[in-house]
Structures are given as structure tokens and as C-alpha cells.
Write a structure and sequence with these properties.
three-stranded parallel sheet
Length: 276
């Protein structure tokens, strides 16, 4: 992320950049497709100037066909010669999962990232099961994340209906998603990549508190492309969420570059060998 994020670590990273520059070692930034915008233009300018001074490449893990880095970094034109779009960094699956219908996929998988936020979404999703037309009898796996408060976890776990299972963590989360009929989650980068890679119908409620804009912006673009169903937690009810889950769209027709991991490795290898 640095210098487009992690600015608090500049006291140790800038000296490292200086040492790398003196030794002739290439310095490459790996950054997501969208940044959280800075209200202070001086910080944005500092990002630009630091990138211009030290970086040999900025690898943006996104697909320019969806949107460019300039969508969230207004000085992107000034470092355009450094930017390469790698495609999204998504998991590689052994084989493409079957799509919904005919019993190939079953149940609903609900997740809330690390669990530090997302409690309201989890409670609402648990309540939505009773209102679901298609999945009220299906198994619902609810993954709270390891940082979900213990007291709330225990309280929710006491009154769960049959067929609803609360988990802190699933080691086979991606495989579970590949077999789920619907995914319900926030719109974090990693979860969204899992959705795209497994082609799972998804309902997403982005985290947007404290000025966070990244999840909402990325999800809005993909919702416009018909890839996911996008909801706002404000005013959302169990009934309306259940309806969206029942009508979740199949994203199998998407054309988004998901080969970011291999492309990134190739670019870095070329830089090390001095071929780029």
C-alpha cells in the first residue's frame, strides 16, 4: 500500500526506500484498485511525490475495464507511467463450481470479515431466514470472524433456529462459498474476490462508517454490471434482505480479469531480472 496507505510507517519505510535506491534495488508498490480518499489534498500530494521519487512501479490490483486508479486517486495522471493494472488477485479453484439451480448449490453462507464490525448485518441475516421464500428450510452458515465480541457470539448462539450454525472461522470458507446457493457479506476486497472466483450469487452490504468509501464504490460498480446485489444497511429489514437473498443474481457472465496473482509475480520477476 505504501505510500498510498500505511503512512504511519513512513519513519521506517522511507529509510528503507533510500537504501534500496542506493543499492539499485527496484521498489514496487502493490495496491488495491480503490483507495480511501483523503480529505487533505496535502496528503494526496505527498503520496504522489513519494511515489514519483522512489517507486519503479505501481501494481494496481484491479481491472481498468471497470475503473481506473484515478477514480480514487486524483493525481494518478502524474504517475501514469508507473501504473500497471494486474487484474484482481483472486483465488484459483481446482474447477469452476456449478451454478445455482437443480440442487448443485445449497444453503446460504453469511460472513462479516474479521468481525470487528458487521454485528448488525449478522443479526439481520439470522432474522431474514424465516422470511426467505427459497431458503427458509436450508442450512445457513454464519461466519462472525475471529474478532466478533465473545459476549455477542454467545448470546446469538443460544437462540439459533435449527439449521443455522454460527462459526467464528471456517478453514474451508472458499470451498463452502463455491457450494453455497447465496453469499451474504460486506464488500471487502477478499470476500468479493471469493465471490467472483466461485461465481456465487451474492448480496452485499458494504461497510461505510467512519468515512470508509472503498467497499461501497467497488460494490456499486459491480452492482451496475449485474454481478452482485447491493444493499444499504440503513433502513434494511429482515423481510427486504430475505427478498434480495431469494432473488440474488447469478454472476457467471462476468468478464473481469482475475489473474492478478500470476501477473503480479511475473512483473516482479521481470523487474528483478532488469527486463522491465
Amino acid at each position: 500500500m505504501f505510500p498510498f496507505g500505511r503512512r504511519a510507517f513512513r519513519f521506517e519505510l522511507i529509510p528503507l526506500f533510500d537504501a534500496a535506491k542506493e543499492a539499485g534495488v527496484p521498489v514496487i508498490c502493490s495496491v488495491r484498485d480503490l483507495l480511501v480518499r483523503k480529505k487533505d489534498i496535502r496528503k494526496t500530494q505527498w503520496m504522489h511525490d513519494t511515489a514519483r521519487e522512489y517507486l519503479d512501479a505501481v501494481l494496481v490490483h484491479g481491472d481498468q475495464k471497470l475503473f481506473g486508479f484515478d477514480r480514487s486517486f486524483e493525481l494518478a495522471d502524474g504517475i501514469a507511467d508507473l501504473i500497471t493494472y494486474t487484474g484482481y488477485v483472486a483465488p484459483t479453484l481446482p474447477s469452476r463450481p456449478s451454478n445455482t439451480g437443480n440442487g448443485h448449490r445449497q444453503g446460504v453462507l453469511v460472513s462479516a470479515g474479521g468481525g470487528a464490525v458487521g454485528a448488525d448485518l449478522i443479526r439481520l441475516t439470522i432474522a431474514a431466514r424465516a422470511h426467505s421464500r427459497n431458503y427458509h428450510d436450508a442450512k445457513w452458515d454464519i461466519v462472525t470472524g475471529p474478532h466478533f465480541p465473545s459476549a455477542q457470539f454467545e448470546m446469538l448462539n443460544k437462540d439459533l433456529a435449527d439449521g443455522v450454525v454460527l462459526h467464528r472461522f471456517l478453514s474451508d470458507f472458499r470451498e463452502r462459498m463455491a457450494g453455497a446457493a447465496v453469499s451474504v457479506s460486506q464488500a471487502g476486497y477478499n470476500t468479493l474476490m471469493d465471490v467472483l472466483a466461485t461465481q456465487t450469487p451474492a448480496v452485499m452490504v458494504p461497510f461505510a462508517e467512519g468515512g470508509e468509501s472503498e467497499q461501497t464504490e467497488r460494490a456499486e460498480v459491480l452492482a451496475d454490471e449485474g454481478v452482485i446485489s447491493l444493499l444499504d444497511l440503513d433502513g434494511l429489514s429482515a423481510q427486504s434482505l430475505a427478498k434480495q437473498i431469494d432473488n440474488a443474481r447469478d454472476p457467471s457472465g462476468i468478464k473481469i480479469d482475475l489473474d492478478g496473482a500470476a501477473r503480479t509475480a511475473s512483473i516482479i520477476a521481470e523487474k528483478i531480472k532488469g527486463q522491465a
